[in-house]
Design goal:
Layout lengths: L2 H6 L4 H23 L5 H16 L6 H40 L1 H31 L4 H14 L1 H25 L3 H17 L7
């Protein structure tokens, strides 16, 4: 096979590289559409990471079929996790607002405490849905494991947190320009990080 034939080989590395951005944009669209009911964000995020981590390991198949299968498989558990995380986030954020308005030294101290708890919860939320996509655990075990990994791999957690904040800011400021690929691209990069972390905890075959 000459260089030209190799370039246009549908199963070749070059064509795979060229198709990757299209796949990311398609997955971004699926994630947005399946997240629109809001209550399904957990299941949609889990499905997104399920496909992307498979893609990272060269196991990608039909994107829509794999996304839908992962969405259905993880719907109940991922939705419960999402509702728990969202409820606790609302409670912590409400407490922050209350203590800030209360003022004084005590108000400042308690506001800082709940702000710290909110950051911990955000760190957990970064890990919990990729973990749901990869590991077969109970809700409690998944949440505890997300807390453990986000603390143990603090360096990577800081990178993931920075990525989430930058993505949110970029989408808010430039939604018409980058909204159609930003979430998918960020998750694609995150999937590489999660795969490196999770490999240490895969059960030995």
């Amino acid at each position: 096979m000459n260089n030209t034939e190799a370039f246009f080989d549908p199963n070749g590395k070059m064509m795979e590289l060229l198709w990757k951005p299209i796949h990311i944009m398609f997955l971004n669209l699926l994630w947005v559409l399946f997240s629109l009911p809001i209550v399904t964000i957990g299941a949609s995020t889990t499905a997104l990471y399920s496909v992307l981590i498979k893609m990272r390991n060269g196991k990608e198949g039909k994107l829509f079929r794999d996304f839908l299968e992962a969405f259905r498989k993880n719907f109940r558990q991922a939705t419960v996790i999402w509702l728990i995380v969202a409820f606790v986030a609302v409670v912590f954020t409400t407490d922050i607002v209350y203590f800030v308005n209360m003022g004084g030294l005590a108000g400042t101290i308690f506001a800082m405490i709940f702000l710290g708890l909110d950051v911990v919860l955000l760190n957990i939320s970064l890990y919990v849905f990729p973990m749901q996509a990869v590991f077969d655990n109970s809700i409690a075990t998944t949440l505890k494991s997300a807390l453990f990994l986000s603390s143990r791999h603090f360096g990577w957690t800081a990178v993931l947190l920075a990525m989430a904040i930058l993505t949110a800011i970029a989408v808010i400021l430039y939604w018409p320009l980058i909204g159609w690929f930003a979430f998918g691209l960020a998750a694609f990069i995150n999937a590489w990080i999660f795969d490196r972390i999770f490999r240490r905890y895969y059960p030995e075959e």
